[in-house]
Design brief:
This protein is mainly alpha-helical. It has one domain. The protein contains 14 helices and no strands. It has helices at residues 2-6, 22-51, 76-90, 96-122, 130-151, 177-195, 203-220, 223-229, 240-258, 267-284, 291-294, 296-315, 325-331, 336-356. Helix 5 (130-151) packs across helix 6 (177-195) and helix 6 packs across helix 12. The longest helix has 30 residues, at 22-51.
Length: 361
């Protein structure tokens, strides 16, 4: 909004020229999201407490978590509100890729809200059925991607492979790309949702991944940097850097109140749209495969659940003391803050390795 209003006036007011720099608008958007969440969460938490919109804790989970019963949830509403407002203020709104990421975020926010509200109203940990939720998420992602690929023509169907240059390996998946990219987005959303089981555990890797994709978006969206690093050039994707750092800014504000012991949880209202936007960023910047490294913590959490379920159904035995894997370490005696911080460290190490791969081609 500010870009469209003020940047055209740069000839009359030279100071407005700064709005042409993605780095300036990204920093401003990140700061806006951070300040909004920092100052609005206290009254928002008090509102949720008055309404008794609290978390329903699973009785079959770690017994230490029973004290969290009733902690205000649906904190993702404020995260996404701050993200949306900041992006609308500072991003170049003529960029269709920005709108594609926002559409997926808003769609998944609605799914998460319905899921959370169902749990609150029923006073139960059971929300939408898994199949119904996956179906709705798939429809949202596929619709947005179809519109971007086949109607707007702003996204192609190639799949860059890490460690290889475009000249070495750049398969075009054609019509198979749509279901593949949909799977990436839906899978990421639900992987973040599975990770959101400890105070601050999910938001840390989300911020790390968001900042990493901010760098990648800026690089693949620049013809010069893409050519220099032998990356697949994605026109217009540099503007997505504004989206990515806004996620990080809102995440920092949320973490101030979500750190152990949490005053508020993000709920599915937060984890699903945050994961969905991360998946969309991976797709829109054509770093779908690199997402497996950047979001390695989310991958490990998801695999631990799959392995546990398959093992128990086939052999009657459990591989982990409890799944997802963060509960396994709790059951082994690790204190919650130790699990959280160590997972954060791992996510940072994986992000650094993902950035290193840019030169390993």
């Amino acid at each position: 909004m500010l870009y469209e209003l003020l940047y055209p006036m740069r000839d009359s007011f030279g100071a407005f020229n700064v709005f042409g720099y993605i780095s300036f608008r990204a920093a401003a958007a990140m700061t806006t999201a951070l300040l909004l969440t920092m100052f609005l969460y206290p009254p928002f938490i008090r509102f949720l407490q008055r309404k008794e919109y609290g978390q329903e804790v699973q009785t079959d989970g770690p017994q230490s978590h029973l004290v969290k019963q009733g902690t205000p949830t649906m904190g993702g509403l404020l995260i996404l509100s701050a993200v949306l407002l900041s992006i609308l203020l500072w991003a170049n709104l003529s960029n269709p890729q920005v709108w594609m990421a926002l559409a997926i975020g808003v769609g998944y926010l609605c799914v998460g809200f319905v899921d959370d509200w169902s749990k609150i109203s029923r006073k139960s940990n059971a929300g939408l059925s898994g199949k119904m939720r996956l179906l709705i998420e798939s429809i949202i992602a596929a619709t947005v991607l179809w519109f971007g690929i086949y109607h707007l023509g702003v996204h192609d169907t190639v799949l860059p492979v890490p460690f290889f240059t475009d000249a070495d390996l750049l398969p075009d998946l054609g019509h198979f790309y749509l279901p593949f990219a949909t799977f990436v987005i839906v899978g990421t959303a639900n992987a973040v949702n599975l990770t959101d089981g400890l105070d601050g555990l999910a938001i840390g890797p989300v911020m790390t991944a968001a900042l990493t994709f901010g760098l990648l978006a800026y690089l693949v969206g620049s013809p010069a940097y893409a050519a220099q690093l032998k990356l697949h050039y994605v026109p217009g994707s540099a503007e997505l850097a504004v989206v990515t750092v806004t996620l990080a800014g809102a995440g920092m504000g949320f973490l101030w109140y979500n750190t152990f012991p949490a005053s508020i949880f993000m709920g599915d209202t937060g984890s699903l749209p945050l994961g969905g936007i991360l998946g969309a960023l991976a797709v829109l910047t054509h770093n779908e495969l690199l997402l497996a490294i950047i979001g390695g913590v989310f991958v490990a959490e998801t695999l631990s659940v799959i392995i546990q379920v398959v093992s128990f159904k086939t052999t009657g035995k459990r591989v982990f003391l409890m799944a997802p894997i963060h509960h396994h370490f709790e059951e082994k005696g690790w204190e919650e803050p130790k699990v959280i911080v160590r997972f954060w460290i791992i996510s940072i190490m994986l992000a650094l390795f993902a950035v290193m791969t840019l030169k390993l081609r």
